[in-house]
């Protein structure tokens, strides 16, 4: 006998879900009541991956303490299966970039990303990791790690609370749940997910960004917002003191 279910019976549900890679959840519940477990390989594969995300164990600045708090008893990240922080990038599939990425540190972050096995994900935690945050105009801070590696979840805030990190983790779980084995990029031929490691030169990072991952915006949103009252992205050249002194006439009686 086919059980009734909110106006649609099982037969209708089966027609409705034809050719779908993930079975209709309502239909699965109805079948489970009958003792039948019906699922798809995609669902099982994604369920296993999203329920056992292993983050890499590293932190860069103050946001790292919020990440640590999320792993402690009060917030208990273990509820999401993501409590196994791994000390090696070879064993991690999530990189939580928690904190300020300085230009000196950015090459190391990219190198660690390259060492992670596929499939791998990146969650940037805090305004600093996303855009430079309060240090956006600092000479030593990178304006967002997404200039060098692809980011899956951006988590704004200064700092984001542990609950926010859990929310970001749930967003990542949603993304993982929506992926299909056949279309997964890490099974495609010619996948290139190792990115060039920038060098820390005398005037910052070389190159300034990876054009494969990030392109400069056509318009600077801050300029639109603040108008021309601030200098955006332009640094005044420091005066050449030697030339200035040479051009200045010496005061009478001054010894050189
Ligand atoms: S976003 Fe705020 S809390 Fe997080 S690292 Fe930057 S300054 Fe610290």
How would you describe the overall organization of this protein?
Helix 5 (106-115) links the parallel strand 1 and strand 2. The chain has helices at residues 10-16, 25-33, 41-50, 63-71, 106-115, 127-131, 162-177, 221-226, 241-247, and strands spanning 94-98, 121-125, 153-155, 199-201, 204-206. The strands form two sheets. It has a three-stranded parallel beta sheet. Strands 4-5 form a two-stranded antiparallel ribbon. The protein is mainly α and 256 residues long. It contains nine helices and five strands; from the N terminus they run ααααβαβαβαββαα. The structure holds iron/sulfur cluster. Iron/sulfur cluster binds at residues 61-63, 99-100, 126-128, 133-134, 158-159.
Q: Any key phrases for this structure?
A:
256 residues, three-stranded parallel sheet, 9 helices, 5 strands, 31% helix, binds iron/sulfur cluster
């Amino acid at each position: 006998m086919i059980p009734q279910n909110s106006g649609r019976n099982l037969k209708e549900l089966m027609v409705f879900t034809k050719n779908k890679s993930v079975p209709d959840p309502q239909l699965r519940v109805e079948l489970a009541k009958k003792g039948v477990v019906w699922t798809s390989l995609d669902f099982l594969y994604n369920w296993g991956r999203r329920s056992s995300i292993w983050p890499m164990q590293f932190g860069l600045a103050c946001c790292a303490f919020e990440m640590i708090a999320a792993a402690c008893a009060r917030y208990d990240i273990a509820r999401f299966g993501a409590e196994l922080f791994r000390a090696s990038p070879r064993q991690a599939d999530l990189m939580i970039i928690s904190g300020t990425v300085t230009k000196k540190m950015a090459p190391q972050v990219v190198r660690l990303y390259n060492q992670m096995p596929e499939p791998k994900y990146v969650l940037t935690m805090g305004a600093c990791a996303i855009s430079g945050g309060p240090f956006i105009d600092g000479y030593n801070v990178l304006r967002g790690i997404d200039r060098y590696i692809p980011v899956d979840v951006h988590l704004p805030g200064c700092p984001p609370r542990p609950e926010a990190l859990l929310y970001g983790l749930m967003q990542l779980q949603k993304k993982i749940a929506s992926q299909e084995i056949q279309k997964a990029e890490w099974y495609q031929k010619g996948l290139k997910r190792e990115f060039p490691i920038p060098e820390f030169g005398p005037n910052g990072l070389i190159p300034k960004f990876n054009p494969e991952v990030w392109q400069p915006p056509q318009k600077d949103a801050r300029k639109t917002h603040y108008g021309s009252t601030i200098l955006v992205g332009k640094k005044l050249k420091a005066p050449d003191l030697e030339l200035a002194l040479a051009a200045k006439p010496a005061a009478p009686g001054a010894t050189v």
